[in-house]
Amino acid sequence: GNSVTQMEGPVTLSEEAFLTINCTYTATGYPSLFWYVQYPGEGLQLLLKATKADDKGSNKGFEATYRKETTSFHLEKGSVQVSDSAVYFCALRGQTGANNLFFGTGTRLTVIP
Amino acid sequence: GAGVSQSPSNKVTEKGKDVELRCDPISGHTALYWYRQSLGQGLEFLIYFQGNSAPDKSGLPSDRFSAERTGGSVSTLTIQRTQQEDSAVYLCASSLALILLSYNEQFFGPGTRLTVL
Q1: Which among A106, A87, A103 has a CA at the least distance from the CA of A3?
Q2: Cis omega before residue B25 (within 30°)?
């Protein structure tokens, strides 16, 4: 079946620190992979996506590369800001079936000035 | 334009009562999804609609849960005889029509926080 495992939080970093949030997945076939972000008091938003192996998704300084050999999609950012404080969810969509997403448990990031 | 809206934003109910949660998708979005986020767990997929039809209801956790969608727009998720383990945030999302092997971005609503006492 399809499942996502992501790094347990919470994560606390100082401003301008390097961020990595690990995400690995289990899926049949060739899933699409996503990172969603939930800022305080707001709904989930798509941050970035990758639809095939070796694709790199990027947005707002965040990047993640679809690694089929390690079944991973780790989220990285070179220099975090206070405004990046949020909960980050890794997700996948299976190759077949409905468009529904399988989510990880979420990682809360707090960036301190 | 307006995003996905959900109501109520918070609902506190007593064990054994029925509750209805409402979702208004983005206009023109034919696909609609319900997810549940329980404390300490990821988002769990419950059900999706393509138009008014729900092809797969196997994600609903029990037969106390049901959902409907009318007019290809508003959807309601009903939980009968609520239990404490139903306490969670219920999220709704909508997207453009499902297309095989393609992905249409899902836009999420703010959620309904349900607390069953």
Answers
A1: A103
A2: no
Strands B88-95 and B31-37: antiparallel
**Are A103 and B98 a contacting pair at CB < 8 A?**
no
Dig out the tokens for B3 from the structure: 């995003």
The predicted structure's pLDDT at residue B1? 55
Q: What is the pLDDT of residues A30-65, one digit of tens each?
A: 899 999 999 988 889 999 999 999 999 999 999 999
**CA atoms of B111 and B93, how far apart (whole Å):** 9
Give the span between the Cα atoms of A5 and B102, in whole angstroms: 24
Asked if A32's CB is within 8 angstroms of B103's CB, the reply is yes
The mean predicted confidence, pLDDT, of chain B is 90
Mean pLDDT within B25-40: 90
Say yes or no for a CB contact (<8 Å) between B42 and A45. Answer: no
Q: How many helices (H) and strands (E) does chain A have?
A: 0, 12
Chain B contact for A11, CB < 8 A?
no
